[in-house]
Design goal:
The chain has 14 helices and 21 strands. With 487 residues, it is an alpha+beta fold. Strands 1, 2, 5, 6, 7, 8, 17, 19 and 21 form a 9-stranded mixed beta sheet that branches. Strands 18-16-9-20 form a 4-stranded mixed beta sheet, with helices on one face. It binds flavin-adenine dinucleotide.
């Protein structure tokens, strides 16, 4: 069946965009490889940054630009902050139960992070919007893996191929999230395998700034999945201690525990090397406050044998957020006709070299809606003639090992070159969903490594120990000739 708009992904971006499309009278199909309540959105803790008053618009813009280390597109940042508050109103009208008190987070000069359900803000958004999507009867396809983009013979993206069959539409919006699973330890869920980025790249779209990967500073390591301890904990006063149980952040940044994420993450990494361990200490905040303000984190760590209200928690940096992605304009338009992208999958110019905490959930709202508006002006129905090729790699672990060693929190030409030599090559053949996901990760891991090698400087989410200072302000662009096969 033909739709006006296909939306791939049901995180905050896809759910909210689908509701907007429906309100505009478009016929929309929302596709998720997992259930609707999924993606990083479901796991987000801290909340959503919105300016708290008209006077807070300029400070929010300046904080975002500062975190982005010279690589943000200022007009995109301005538009984002100016439009964000209208979406807060909309979320409230859908029933997201934001609490009255706003939190301070790293890099913010003012407490402007709105949260819900204590420290389960993303879950509150995901569950609430999913219910509204269901109530409004929006057509959904859950558990369907998008494996190819369909193109017409003019090169326009005209649909997707899922494990359930082909779907054609007037436009396609990718809202499929980031690629945290490229790394051996990440806070991002299983779904975060960079599928949308790899699909767009194979279809010939331009990717941007892929080497910028955000490490969250305070993650409790429990196997491959890092258990995040939200930045809001430091916003509420939690302190970092080294292996000698001494505070150290004053040696790294005047903002101390609330310095931007890249600074805190590298400081923790350095103190781990010097003193063996780093801890996050919440004890002085009081047992009752900790349990009431951070209920999910309290329970999750309790199940791992750590009582965060009574003992310092060992923490390490882990991969958290995909800063680069599919190049888009401020209307979510990619470099391919018919293809739009918004949310973590996209490189819209908002984050520059480093994302400001809690700007990414609102990013999905602002740019998801803008993409729907632009797509509506550009619906064209053409016949699919080809699809992007299927590519597989035997195991995700083989990619994770190489990337973890080659493009981690500290990089050098030597580690990156070795990784480029040992990265598995995706093979052009069909396979299981896990093998296709690994193929997607391998296809774009190459861009992370090449970007990291060519960027002989350090900036935001890219740190080269052999070039520790910032140098030229420039973006990295990646494009290959389309990898297509006839239908
Ligand atoms: C633990 C954690 C905590 C965070 N905390 C915060 C926070 O407090 N504030 C903040 O602003 N940001 C936070 N972030 C970042 C933020 O959650 C994400 O950037 C944001 O949720 C991304 O939303 P999205 O809609 O773009 O993608 P996601 O929420 O990741 O959704 C992606 C969707 O795409 C679907 N999908 C992917 N590939 C395919 C495919 N091939 N076929 C079909 N469907 C597919 C998935 O099933 C999923 O539904 C956090 C991230 C993590 C991991």
């Amino acid at each position: 069946m033909q739709h006006d708009l296909l939306i791939v992904g049901s995180g905050i971006t896809g759910l909210y965009a689908a509701l907007h499309a429906k309100a505009l009278g478009l016929s929309v199909l929302l596709i998720s490889k997992a259930k609707l309540e999924s993606g990083s959105t479901f796991w987000a803790q801290g909340g959503l940054a919105f300016p708290t008053s008209p006077e807070d618009i300029e400070p929010h813009i300046q904080d975002t630009l500062k975190a982005g280390r010279g690589l943000c597109d200022e007009s995109t940042v301005r538009l984002f902050v100016e439009e964000a508050s209208q979406h807060l109103e909309k979320l409230l009208s859908y029933g997201v139960p934001f609490e009255d008190h706003q939190t301070l987070e790293g890099g913010h000069s003012h407490p402007r992070v709105f949260h819900a359900w204590g420290d389960a803000s993303g879950r509150a958004v995901s569950v609430t919007l999913t219910q509204v999507v269901r109530d409004q009867g929006i057509e959904v396809l859950e558990g369907a893996f998008v494996q190819s983009l369909l193109l017409s013979d003019t090169g326009r993206v005209v649909g997707v191929q899922t494990t359930e069959g082909n779907h054609v539409a007037g436009a396609v919006l990718l809202a499929s999230g980031g690629f945290g699973q490229m790394y051996p330890v990440t806070t991002a869920p299983e779904e975060a395998t960079g599928d949308g980025i790899a699909l767009a790249y194979r279809a010939g779209a331009v990717l941007r700034d892929m080497e910028f990967v955000q490490f969250h500073p305070t993650v409790f390591l429990a196997g491959n999945r890092g258990l995040l301890i939200t930045e809001a904990a430091r916003g509420e006063g939690a302190l970092l201690l080294n292996g000698q149980m001494e505070r150290f952040m004053h040696q790294y940044d005047p903002l101390q525990e609330l310095a931007p994420r890249d600074v805190v993450a590298r400081a923790i990494d350095a103190e781990e090397t010097k003193t063996g361990r780093v801890y996050l200490d919440l004890r002085h905040l009081g047992e009752a406050f900790v349990q009431q303000r951070f209920p999910s984190i309290y329970e999750r760590l309790k199940s791992q044998g750590v009582d965060i209200s009574r003992e310092p928690v060992p923490v390490s940096p882990a991969v958290h957020y995909t800063i680069g992605g599919i190049l888009t304009d401020t209307n979510g338009k990619t470099t391919l006709e018919g293809l739009y992208a918004a949310g973590e999958v996209a490189s819209s110019g908002l984050h520059g070299a480093n994302r400001l905490a809690s700007n990414s959930l609102p990013e999905g709202l602002v740019f998801g809606v803008r993409a729907v508006e632009a797509a509506r002006q550009d619906l064209k129905f053409e016949i699919p003639a080809s699809r992007t090729v299927l590519e597989t790699v035997g195991s995700k672990a083989s990619v994770q090992q190489v990337i973890g060693a080659g493009a981690g929190i500290n990089r050098t030409a030597e580690t990156i070159r070795l990784a480029l030599q040992t990265l598995p090559h995706p093979e052009p053949r069909a396979g299981s969903i896990e093998e296709l996901e690994a193929g997607n990760l391998a296809r774009i891991a190459d861009t992370v490594l090449r970007g990291a090698l060519e960027r002989e400087e350090s900036r935001g989410g890219h740190f080269r120990t052999d070039y520790p200072e910032p140098d030229e302000v420039r973006h990295s662009l990646f494009q290959i000739p389309p990898l297509l096969e006839p239908l």
